[in-house]
Amino acid sequence: MNGRGAAGIFAFTADNLKAANAILAKYPDGRQQSAVMPLLDLAQRQLGWTSPAVIEYVADFLGLPAIRVWEVVSFYTMYYREPVGKYRLHICTTTPCWLRGSDEVVRACKEKTGLDFGETDENGLFTLLEVECLGACVNAPVLQINDDYYEDLDADRTAALLDALAEGRPPTTGTQAERLNSAPEGGKTTLLESDARC
After folding, report:
1. CA angle 46-50-54, nearest 5°?
2. Do 111 and 162 belong together in one domain?
């Protein structure tokens, strides 16, 4: 059961209802309305998007007017107001990623998927989204796929990622370059000599 019924009805599954109540328990009495964002996330993970029925359900669940939940959903890009693909490709195109080649990542994604920003393919596999800074500038350019980050991308690495996803092979997350996490490419550039006085 996914919580969908006739006419777009939504309800949390039994497991998600337990999770929702656990989320509410983290908030002080009278402040449970502050749980709107984690409850929307939970509902979206269940349904796949934040439908009008989800918004109404979360509003009722928290005792809020629906417009208050709509305000949150319409402000944050992490809530999808229409159905999306299995893999959501969030491409950062802000200055640090752009300086390091995000245009190549965009081009590779568009060529591989045949999509433009805001579109989902007919198979429901990919949705292509342009986003603001993802906060991983040191390893730019960055592509967030669902909840995972793929960093240090270029056109070829991006194409390989998309091929792996299309073939059902989960790619390794993180940097796609020859470096350890966020260490400098090419190895250390400072503190190359030990000092016995330290």
Report:
1. 75
2. yes
* Domain CATH for 42: 1.10.10.1590
Is pTM beyond 0.90 here?
no
Query: How far apart are the C-alpha atoms of 18 and 56, rounded to whole Å?
Result: 19
What type of residue sits at position 71?
E
Q: What is the DSSP letter of 70?
A: H
Please give the C-alpha separations between residue 149 and each of 131, 140, 175, in angstroms, as whole numbers: 13, 11, 8
Domain contains 195? no
**Does a cis peptide bond (omega within 30 degrees of 0) precede residue 52?**
no
Query: Does residue 144 sit in the same domain as residue 110?
Result: yes
Alpha carbon 112 to its chain centroid, in Å, reads: 20
Query: Can you give the residue range of the structural domain that contains 138?
Result: 87-175
Q: Which tens digit of pLDDT belongs to each residue from 90-119? A: 999 999 999 999 999 999 999 999 999 999
What tens digit of pLDDT does each residue of 136-149 get?
Answer: 999 999 999 999 99
- Residue 137's CB: how many other CB atoms inside 10 A? 18
Considering the domain boundaries, does residue 193 fall inside one? no
